[in-house]
Amino acid sequence: MNEILPDDIQESLLATFREESLEQLTELESTLMELEISPLDTEVINKAFRTLHTIKGNAGMFGFEEIEAYTHDLESAFDLVRKGTRRVTPELIDLTLRARDALLVLLQGTGDSKAVRPEMDTVMSLVSDFLKEEQAETGDATKPERSGKRGDNESGGGGGGSGKKPGSSVRVASEKLDQLVNLVGELVTVQARLTQMVSESTDSGLEAVAEEVESLTWELRENAFSIRMIPIETTYRRIKRLVRDLSRELGQEVELITEGSETELDKNVIEKLTDPLMHLIRNSVDHGIESPEERLQAGKPEKGTVRLSATNSGADVVIRVQDDGRGLDSEAIRKKALEKGLISTEADLTNADIFSLIFAPGFSTANQVTNISGRGVGLDVVKRSAEELRGTLAVESVPGEGTTFIIRLPLTLAIIDGLLVNVAGEKYIVPLSIVEECVFLTKETVGGSHGRRIIRLRGEIVPYVSMREWFDVQGDPPDIQQVVVVREGERRIGLLLDHVIGEHQTVIKSLGKVYRNVDGVSGATILGDGTISLILDVPRVMRVTERMESPIFAA
Amino acid sequence: MKRVMTVDDSASVRMMVRVTLSGAGYEVVEASDGVEALQKLSETDIQAMVVDLNMPGMGGLDLVRKLRKIPGFLSTPIIMLTTEGSKDIIQKGKDAGATGWMVKPFSPEQLVNVIRRVL
Fold first, then answer.
1. What is the pTM of this model?
2. CATH of the domain spanning B3-118, picked from 3.90.1570.10, 3.40.50.2300, 3.40.50.1860, 1.10.10.10
């Protein structure tokens, strides 16, 4: 790089270089994992070589001499492989993956770069050992016992995602997209006000224009959101790597099957989803899948399977992590919960109730603390992450057959369809995606059934909670009130409120720190008349209510 | 204004060539591989090319060999970019019909000088 170019151009050049190199490192990772499955595939070998070559070349061009030097030996190693003098070994793949991880840190140029240098040096001396090793290799094919460590069965994903679709595309800074969505949010808010004002006027010409603006706003909203949607594939790639490393660490053969990598989610959701998803996978591999001996005894294939799938379901995306392991042991969970004082001895619990205890804070069933799961982070953290994304986490399990975690997430975070409701003159929003139905309740039936708060819905019993009491509202409720029945996973609960107003396109505004402690509220929105309405945090309301109403929670 | 085409699979190298040469008064056309280069060459007039040796699909040498068979490109200056300056590679480039070569890493001035010399 040189003084011939102005500073700002140099800077944007560097940014492009960084971005490109990060992409190449990601590609290198998936190429290496392909290579692990087919170590003799010349096309894959060439791809690995070329990627290393480009990383090295570019690093040199842009003055990253350190990275250039590090990649040099790796490139030479793959050059030997490419020319047929050496073979791909599990060690080479391992070393290259380790080097890749370290390069990633160096490239990001954060404070950690000092910390990875020792690791990088170790890896590099091992690589140069590899280069020096006698070329007299046993002529047989590469050792097969390692190659089956992991499998990758993405339907139709033979190329490992390298097959970029034709058609032109442009790169846009993600802040610009965020800004666009914010602006659309503002527009939707103003739109609501316009609609409100027009409804009070008698000008039919104005009405027609307002309607047109409304439909354009709607279209713009859909459009802006679709721009931010990205396929979940990037997260899958990281998980494939994780499963590979875990398999090695635990000496456990695990096959990862991924489905629905093309499923799209909001960019921001995907970013925040990766960690909780990795945690669930870790949990499945570490706790769910039995040791090879146990599996053989149970008449299962020695190799365990984790199936990761993503599907669209209405306005939600459903992600499942399913293992074919031992399943949850309800007796063990119950015992543990008793020990921890989470339930009382006389509690009469269904299996589903017991299973949901694993999401309670401080609960962990691991007998052995391993490097993988024993990090003091429990499933409660995963549940909370899902809820922060306005989603839910549920679990299903069959003893001896396996466990499935189900994450349900909204497609986007910024604007939701809401149900506007009235509680003692205040307006609140209930996310429409979880609303099941609305029923009327007369004064006589409220508090009926011997004071227990339940309604009967076509033979089924649904508990409800009074929002007036929740928010400590004084005064008498109207004669006829409404119950909005909401569902989270297998659980249903009714929200007793004054009345339902109607649907509302809700632009979510987060509440400032001052309001962090307001219980049962997750955000706010601006209504058409300019007033503010709070968004109900339904999962939170459900949790607190369950704890209060049912005898199972001692606390 | 004279037009130079950069053919490279790396976006950052293309960008570097573009900003450097456009700063020196050239118009720059980008192509990310041999196929795209051939297509763009059929649409626009190009006076010189900077071609990367190592590209997926149609590599730099193949592209140069192809071009040298097309009337109209027999003497277009083509500078090859390589990461190693071994005689072997440079000879291969010459045989294919390259006008000159530059070994990466190179500085913006070097690039401008080379292009000024051939144009």
1. 0.57
2. 3.40.50.2300
